[in-house]
Amino acid sequence: MGSPVCGFLKQNNIIFLRFFAILVLSCIPDRTNLCSNPSFDTPTIPPHSSSSSIPSSLKTLTLDGYFSFENLKHAAKDFGNICHYLPIAVLHPKSVSDISSTIKHILYMSSVTKLTVAARGRGHSLQGQAQAYQGVVINMESLDRPSMYIENGEVPYVDVSGGELWINILHETLKYGLSPKSWTDYLHLTVGGTLSNAGISGQAFRHGPQINNVYQLEVVTGRGEVVTCSDKENADLFYGVLGGLGQFGIITRARISLGPAEKMVKWIRVLYSEFSTFSNDQEHLISSNNSFDYIEGFVMINRTGLLNNWRSSFNPKDPIQASQFSSDGKILYCLEMVKYFNPEKIDVLNQDIEKLLSELNYIPSTLFLSEVSYVEFLDRVHLSEIKLRSKGLREVPHPWLNLLIPKSRIFDFAEGVFGNIVKDNNNGPILIYPVNKAKWNNRTSMVTPEEDIIYLVAFLSSALPGTDGLEHIMTQNQHILDFCAKAQLGAKQYLPHYHTQDEWRAHFGTQWETFVQRKSAYDPLAILAPGQRIFQKAISIT
Question: Which reaction equations make up its catalytic activity (predicted)?
Answer without folding.
Answer: N(6)-dimethylallyladenine + A + H2O = 3-methyl-2-butenal + adenine + AH2
